């Protein structure tokens, strides 16, 4: 299968990749390794260097990138960044998206995605969304789970391009549906990780050997990819970023917004949102989301 993807990619026109942050940079590198020719652009130019070394063309600006491609992948931090880069609500927007397929892999609000899709299609472009489940390590290994949504023919057309970044691609429906699936997954992930951090804090306050706790969890039914990656970081107090606390907090806010639109009770989400907000306020916004343990520690300190 990968050989077929590579052969198809090598004969294709270049693909654009916009946004080379913690996730975007390794994702783009995996496309290059699969033989997909890339034109890249990032608002912070230094993030393009590893891509240039690996063989990508670096565009001097967004218009130069879009002028060379028929398909552009967007992996920007939020909806405001997407609007700014695409020139949405300005005269630059239509020329930038007309005749092109924009694949949005950013995690944004489903309502925003549906509006963006409508605007792109009105301007003569095509829209596909493919938010991913996973953090920096799976991104580096090409082991993300892609959650894809859009018109069926557009989804089918872009799947081979997305495949080198993912271990699996799950079709989720139309515009906005893939993002709702992503929010559902993140609700589980964010509350799960806050619970894991609280368990580690409970053990440390009782003076237990955290390596023994890790061994017990690893041997039991709660072990999974998340615990295997995040538990060693909690045990070592290692907050080097794989998925940032500020991103977890932003995700909680998106989930809460979507829950309110349907009058959904979300008590665990509310507590997780508060904890991630507190750890961001403590200065851990760009540290890994396991730094949520710091918010829990501070609450313990307040109890005396």
List the topology elements.
Layout: H1 2-10, E1 15-18, H2 24-33, E2 38-41, H3 49-54, E3 57-58, H4 62-66, E4 71-74, H5 79-86, H6 93-97, E5 101-104, H7 110-122, E6 126-129, E7 132-133, H8 136-141, E8 144-150, H9 152-162, E9 166-173, H10 177-205, H11 210-219, H12 225-236, H13 245-261, H14 267-284, H15 292-303
Parallel strand pairs: 1-2, 1-4, 2-3, 4-5, 5-6, 8-9
Antiparallel strand pairs: 6-8, 7-8
Using brief descriptors, characterize the structure shown.
304 residues, 9-stranded mixed sheet, 9 strands
Order of helices and strands: HEHEHEHEHHEHEEHEHEHHHHHH
Number of helices: 15
Q: Strand fraction band?
A: 5-15%
Q: What does the main sheet amount to?
A: 9 strands, mixed
Q: Indicate the percent of residues in helices.
A: 55-70%
- Which of globular, elongated, flat, extended, rod-shaped describes the shape? globular
Computed CA radius of gyration, to the nearest angstrom: 20 Å
Question: Low-confidence spans: pLDDT under 50, at least 5 residues?
Answer: 1-11
The total strand number stands at: 9
Mean pLDDT: 95
Distance between the termini: 59 Å
Supply the helix-strand structural class: alpha/beta
Report a brief summary of the structure.
This protein is an alpha/beta fold and 304 residues long. It contains 15 helices and nine strands. It has helices at 2-10, 24-33, 49-54, 62-66, 79-86, 93-97, 110-122, 136-141, 152-162, 177-205, 210-219, 225-236, 245-261, 267-284, 292-303, and strands spanning 15-18, 38-41, 57-58, 71-74, 101-104, 126-129, 132-133, 144-150, 166-173.
């Amino acid at each position: 299968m990968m050989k077929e993807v590579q052969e198809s990619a090598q004969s294709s026109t270049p693909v654009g990749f916009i946004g080379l942050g913690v996730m975007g940079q390794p994702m783009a590198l995996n496309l290059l390794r699969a033989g997909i020719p890339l034109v890249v652009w990032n608002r912070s130019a230094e993030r393009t260097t590893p891509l240039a070394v690996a063989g990508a063309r670096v565009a001097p600006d967004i218009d130069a990138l879009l002028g060379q491609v028929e398909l552009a992948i967007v992996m920007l931090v939020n909806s405001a960044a997407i609007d700014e880069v695409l020139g949405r609500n300005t005269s630059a927007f239509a020329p930038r998206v007309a005749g092109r397929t924009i694949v949005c892999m950013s995690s944004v609000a489903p309502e925003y995605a549906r509006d963006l899709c409508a605007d792109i299609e009105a301007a003569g472009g095509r829209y596909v969304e493919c938010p991913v489940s996973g953090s920096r390590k799976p991104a580096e290994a090409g082991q993300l789970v892609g959650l894809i949504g859009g018109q069926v023919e557009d989804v089918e057309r872009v799947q081979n391009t997305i495949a080198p970044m993912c271990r699996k691609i799950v079709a989720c429906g139309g515009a906005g549906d893939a993002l709702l699936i992503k929010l559902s997954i993140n609700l589980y992930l964010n509350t799960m990780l806050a619970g894991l951090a609280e368990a580690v804090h409970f053990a440390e306050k009782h003076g237990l050997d955290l390596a023994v706790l890790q061994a017990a969890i690893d041997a039991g039914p709660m072990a999974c990819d998340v615990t295997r990656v995040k538990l060693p970081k909690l045990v070592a107090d290692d907050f080097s970023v794989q998925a940032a606390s500020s991103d977890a907090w932003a995700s909680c806010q998106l989930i809460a917004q979507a829950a309110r639109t349907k009058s959904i009770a979300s008590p665990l989400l509310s507590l997780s949102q508060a904890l991630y907000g507190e750890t961001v306020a403590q200065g851990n916004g760009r540290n890994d989301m396991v730094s949520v343990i710091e918010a829990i520690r501070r609450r313990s300190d307040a109890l005396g």
